[in-house]
UniProtKB/TrEMBL annotation:
Protein family membership: Belongs to the EXORDIUM family.
InterPro entries referenced in this protein's UniProt entry, alphabetically: EXORDIUM-like
Keyword Secreted attached: yes
Sorted UniProt keywords: Apoplast, Secreted, Signal
Any single Gene Ontology cellular-component annotation: apoplast
Residues annotated as signal peptide: 1-33
Record-given protein name: Protein EXORDIUM-like 3
Family matches, as Pfam families: Phi_1
Length: 347
């Protein structure tokens, strides 16, 4: 399949040498509202009452801008790559979340209602982000083809293996495809647990052969549940925080759902890192989910997640899917200049 020329990061980066793009890839990091990262110096009052001290992330200082790059306006197809050992029950949770994005008849507050905020973002032609998100072909890599410790570059090599496999390769879909690499709980990825729980970028033609938007999200159940599975688990170095019960009985996978949502929302609005982000520096983009990380309901800010819901079994959630419930972080609404979600009390 012929591949269109890769989109430039910006007019300036289009002429930049390869090492500058590699610097951008390796040293760009997420800017988060709040997560209990282990490198933060413990201070109980700061952890419990400090953080951003924002009300639902609202701020007149946030200037999210459109930088003229493409967004995903065509129907979005998510191609999961299951790296490592996955239970069928775990796959079902993730599949049903992705399937819920385009299920408008779901009981509110719903995942589809959450996606409506993402759809507010447009491209140069005023076309909105697509309202259709569905799962495409899937690939299993149960034998850890690239080992159990991956770098950011070897993540791209895993994707290359998936699209170039001799049997049942994933389709190459640069226009509307999202390649979602999901690593099992015994796989470490560069920077995992230290300052990322997932990330997104685009593949390099020099490695994969194509420019494809992709995301990686890891299962933190064994490696760092107190960081990346928060609030279903809490770190022991922060006194006073209490974990909540996960809605689908799998702490690691239930926590992955919000990270998957985070990355897909940002891939849709900033697939080549030259569309929607705050700040003037594309090396450190602050995107629509970064601004709201840790906020799940009205009043959220700092380490307070906001007002959430509880089912009859005591599990915590804030959105309904097709057959399940999920806890998903809010995203930034550039029209009102604060984080919004379908479970907001003013909805």
């Amino acid at each position: 399949m012929m591949m269109p020329p890769p989109q430039p990061l910006t007019a300036a980066l289009a002429l930049a040498p390869l090492f500058l793009i590699l610097i951008l890839f390796f040293f760009s990091g997420p800017v988060v509202c709040w997560r209990p990262w282990p490198n933060i110096q413990p201070n109980s009052t700061d952890f419990l009452f400090g953080g951003s001290k924002k009300y639902e992330g609202s701020s007149e200082f946030v200037k999210l801008k459109y930088h003229m790059g493409p967004v995903l306006t065509a129907n979005i197809t998510v191609y999961p790559i299951w790296y490592g050992k996955w239970e069928s029950s775990q796959k079902r949770i993730i599949r049903e979340f992705i399937g819920s994005v385009s299920a408008p008849d779901t009981k509110p507050p719903s995942v589809a209602g959450w996606w409506k905020t993402v759809r507010l973002y447009t491209d140069q032609t005023s076309a909105n982000i697509s309202g259709t998100v569905h799962i495409g072909e899937e690939k299993n890599d149960r034998f850890y083809s690239h080992g159990k410790s991956l770098t950011r570059l070897s993540v791209q090599s895993v994707i290359k293996s998936a699209v170039s496999a001799s049997t049942r390769p994933l389709p190459v879909n640069p226009k509307s495809g999202v390649y979602l690499l999901l690593t099992s709980d015994d796989v470490y990825v560069q920077d995992f647990c230290n300052n990322v729980c997932g990330f997104h970028y685009f593949t390099f033609p020099s490695i994969v052969g194509y420019t494809l938007p992709y995301a990686w999200v890891g299962n933190s159940a064994k490696l760092c549940p107190g960081v990346c599975a928060y609030p279903f688990a809490v770190p022991n170095y922060i006194p006073g925080l209490k974990a909540v019960k996960s809605p689908n009985g799998d702490v690691g996978v239930d926590a992955m759902i919000s990270v998957i949502a985070h990355e897909i929302a940002e891939l849709a609005t900033n697939p080549l890192v030259n569309a929607w982000y705050a700040g003037q520096d594309p090396v450190f983009p602050v995107e629509i989910a970064d601004l709201c990380e840790g906020i799940y309901g009205t009043g959220g800010g700092g380490s307070y997640a906001g007002q959430m819901l509880n089912d009859k079994d005591g599990a915590t959630y804030n959105m309904n899917g097709i057959r399940r419930r999920f806890l998903v972080q809010w995203v930034w609404n550039h029209l009102v200049n604060y984080c919004t979600g379908p479970n907001a009390l003013d909805q």
